[in-house]
Amino acid sequence: MIVDAHIHMLQEPGFSSNLLRQMDAAGIDRANLVALWPAAFVGSVTAGNNAVRQAVREHPDRFTGFAYVEPREADAPAQVRALADAGFHGFKLFPPLGYRVDEARLRPVFDAMAATARPVLVHCGSTNLDLAAEPHTTPINSALARPLFLDPLTRLYPDTTFVVAHMGFPFLLEAWALAMANPNVILDVAGGPVWPGSWAGIYTNLGRPIPIDWNRVWWGTDNCMTPADGLAFAKQNLTHILNLPNTHKEKRVYVRWEVENPLDGTIL
Question: I need a labelling partner for 74 at 20 to 30 A (CA). Which of 37, 152, 198, 228 fits?
Answer without folding.
Answer: 152
